[in-house]
Amino acid sequence: MSTILLLLYRLLGLYSWVILLHCLLSFLPFNNRFTQLIHALCEPVLSPVRDFLQSHFRMSYIDWSPMVVFLAISLMQTLIARLI
After folding, report:
1. For a Cys-Cys bond, which of 7, 37, 42, 65 suits 22, CB 3.0-4.6 Å?
2. CB-CB neighbours of 48 under 10 Å
3. In whole angstroms, what is the distance from residue 46 CA to residue 74 CA?
4. What is the rounded CA–CA span in Å between residue 84 and residue 15?
């Protein structure tokens, strides 16, 4: 059981790096296979969070969805670390 939790912990950490990379690449005008892959990995998670934030809060033009997902990943990693 702890092996599965450790794997999940590390995958969550890797996914947070992918989201950070997505945020950084959004400022660059590149559109190649790599950026499309990063976009395809992140948007299924970021898009529902973005839609929720836009429909329930009057947000500015800043996309806060990566920060919310980072917070959720951090909370999940904290819970997993307590279980390991």
Report:
1. 42
2. 12
3. 15
4. 20
Half-sphere exposure of 14 (CA within 13 A, CB side): 8
Number of domains in the chain: 1
Rounded to two decimals, the pTM is 0.87
Over residues 43-80, the pLDDT tens digits come to 999 999 999 998 888 767 888 999 999 999 999 999 99
How far apart, in Å, are the Cα atoms of 26 and each of 9, 21, 50, 55, 84?
Answer: 26, 8, 15, 23, 35
Q: Is the dihedral of CA 44, 56, 58, 77 positive or negative?
A: negative
Write out the residue range of the structural domain in which residue 39 sits.
2-83
CB 15 within 8 A of CB 38: no
